[in-house]
Amino acid sequence: MITRYALIAAMVLSGGAAWAENHESETEVDAPQVAELTAEDVDMDAAGKIFQRSCRACHGNKAQGAASYPKLSDKEPQYLADMLARYRDGERIGPNSILMIQNAKDLSDEDIANLSVYIATAFD
Ligand code: HEC
């Protein structure tokens, strides 16, 4: 229980402002290249299913974010893909990265490409 309370306290303390800026990568990450992709190029249905099952609970129905869960819907696809690949690699970026490392570790390159385009376009 102690660790659980500590985690909740950390998340409350670190909310909002810390995520106002983009967390551009200082090192190259092996992320799928999605900058040129549109909704027609990816599997939006597959991404939607993953989003509903594994992302929505924290990031919100429309990826709008809440408290210490960052908003995703206003980000560029390549930014989202880079971040997901970095979390998949186990990189710690913000104070609550452990939550994302858990959620990204089983994503394939295809999942990341699908999710990145989906999140950036489906909620406009
Ligand atoms: C248990 C809650 C939780 C779940 C589930 C979750 N996330 Fe996150 N996500 C977070 C938190 C907290 C952060 C900030 C992490 C940090 O401090 O580094 C984050 C950060 C991110 C970022 C970086 C945002 C930015 O502005 O840099 C992306 C992209 C992201 N999540 C996508 C996803 C996707 C896609 C899924 C589903 C596969 C998902 N998340 C599932 C809590 C969650």
UniProtKB/TrEMBL annotation:
Matching SUPFAM superfamilies = Cytochrome c
Q: Which Pfam families match?
A: Cytochrom_C
Superkingdom of this protein's organism: Bacteria
Specify the signal sequence span. Answer: 1-20
Q: Residues in domain Cytochrome c? A: 42-123
* InterPro entries, per database record: Cyt_c-like_dom (IPR009056), Cyt_c-like_dom_sf (IPR036909), Cytochrome_c_Oxidase_Subunit (IPR050597)
Gene Ontology molecular functions:
electron transfer activity; heme binding; metal ion binding
Q: Which UniProt keywords apply?
A: Heme, Iron, Metal-binding, Signal
PANTHER family, sorted = CBB3-TYPE CYTOCHROME C OXIDASE SUBUNIT FIXP (PTHR33751:SF1)
Q: What is this protein's record name?
A: Cytochrome C oxidase, cbb3-type, subunit III
